[in-house]
Every structure is written in structure tokens, then in C-alpha cells.
Target: Quinone oxidoreductase-like protein 1 isoform X1
Amino acid sequence: MVGATMKGLYFQQSSTNEEITFLFQERENLPVTDDNFVKLQVKACALSPINTKLLAEMKMEKDFFPVGREVAGIVLDVGAKVSFFRPDDEVVGVLPLDSEDPGLCEVIQVHEHYLVHKPEKVSWTEAAGTIRDGVRACTALYYLSHLSPRKSVLIMDGASAFGTIAIQLAHHRGAKVISTACCLEDKQHLERIRPPVARVIDVSNGKGHVAESCLEETGGLGVDIVIDAGVRLYSKDDEPAVKFQLPHKHDIITLLGVGGHWVTTEENLQLDPPDSHCLFLKGATVAFLNDEVWNLSNVQQGKYLCILRDVMEKLSAGIFRPLLDEPIPLYEAKASMEVVQKNQERKKQVVQF
Model:
């Protein structure tokens, strides 16, 4: 039984907004008070870096921000107007940016429109650990680049948790997949994926020539779709060391084929007139992969729920096989979030209750 109070994980920003501190706070186990909310016993919560810059842009100013948004659990109670769920239902979802409750807590309240039913044979940790990366992959490949069979797809940093899911989705749709590896361990992981990746480009120590390799693999035609993991906008001397292994924006433009789609995670992408002219000559497009796009647009809620259900169906069918680390207990969540926030984890971290 859950007591009258319980601990939840929150973060607090410094006065300069440059550093954040994670801490546990006591909170009350309140009854459902809103008509469209469900009370959820959390069984697993996956960890992802917090976009503090976006929170500041959205004017979300709080003393303490809740931590943990990718949750799976059991419905304990429902509000008067909840129509999709009943007590004892097993559900999974992503909490909205403005959620008052942290996913890293035993019991929370969630609006029903952010949840879908969890398939019976999918584990709690798999559900929580796949939901967000699955949404990102579907958004990138279905909605931003219109993936279809026999297309060629370059997925940068394919051995990451997101990259692994994106590769599996591209394979499922009959695409030819090329990927980059940042180290020997990543290269070995990509070579074990089945069906196999068409080509693994080793970019460790800056030795991989991404554009040349992609053009060679496609007979000089260029790839149809590129999903980057960030790009370099300037010369290596002018970029921070963390971007050393990333391709330059000119490399991406060079390797794009006619009518190609470049899906970028670089929110501050700068394209000079010659870059735009080259994209124009190829009839190519640039789209931005914003993790929060569905949460920022209420009119797309129905489409978002369809994506959540699709991700769970693919996970249940074995199409998605997430790259998960060993589950961790709640008391280790603070230390784990500090590591995740620095983007130092390759496998998805999931807290199991």
C-alpha cells in the first residue's frame, strides 16, 4: 500500500540557468480531482535529458520542476469524465511538458490523452524505455520524410537508443539503411542488427568520410533520407570538442539525393545562400525533429495517440527491440539522471518500481 506521502524526483535550476540540481521531495498521495485525469501507480519510468532551454522559452517558471516523463503503470482510479481507461488497466505514455507530477514517483495523476494501453506481453521497462524514442522515430520517418520501401536512409549515430529504434523502423518499411558508428563498440552493435545495416561508417577520430561513403553505397545518387544526431556548422577549430565526430552541414547536403529529406536535430541550424541554392537544385527539404512537437500542438492530439499505439504494437510484435540498460531502483534515480543529463549514457536508463 502507498502511504499518505511519498518521494518524487525534481530538479532546480541555478540563478544563471546553466546548472541544475536533482533532489527528492516529499509529496502527498492525493485523490483524483480532475474529471479527465487518471491516478497511476508507476511501475517503470525511463530517463531522458531535460531541455531546460525549451522550458525557459515556454515561460515555465517553477521553484522545482518534476523529473521523468516516459512512464508505464497501472490505473488506480479515474476521473468522472475519463472514457478510455478503467482501474487496473495497464498503460504507458509520455507526460506533458507542463505536468505537475514527476514520473519518478510511486503514484501520479495524468490526463488520459497522454496514455495508451500497454500490450500484455510487453514488460514495464520495455514499454517505458521505448515509448519516447519510438515516437521520435515515427515522427522522423513517417511524418517528416515520408519513408517508403526501397528508399535509402542514413541514420547518424545508429548505436544510440534512438538510432537503434530508427534503424529497426526503417528496416520494417523496407528501406536500405546506412549508419555511422562513433567507436568500435558501436560498430559491433550495428553489425549485429538483423536485418543487417547496408553499411556502417566508422567516424571515430574523425576518420570516416560520410559523404564519400554514402555516395559510393548509392552509386553516386545520394541517399533519400538523412536523420542526423547534430551537425557541425563551422570548421573543426571553431566548434566545441563534443561536436568533433559530427558531420559538417556541407557533408549532409552533398550526400543528399534528388528530392531528398534531411531531418535534423540541430535547432540552431544555419544555412548560407550557397547551401540553400544547393538544396534548391536537388529539390531537397530540411525538417526539424523536435521531441516536443506533439506536446506543443493540442490540435494534433488524435494523431499523437495513434503514434503511441503504433509504437506499442510494434514493440509487442518484436519490430522494436530497444537498447535498454539494466533497470535501476528509484533511490538510484538521482545519480542516474545526473549522468543522463550530461548525455553520457548510450543505453536507455529505466527506473523500475
Summary: The CA atoms of residues 15 and 63 lie 11 Å apart. The mean pLDDT is 91. The radius of gyration is 21 Å. The longest helix spans residues 124-144.
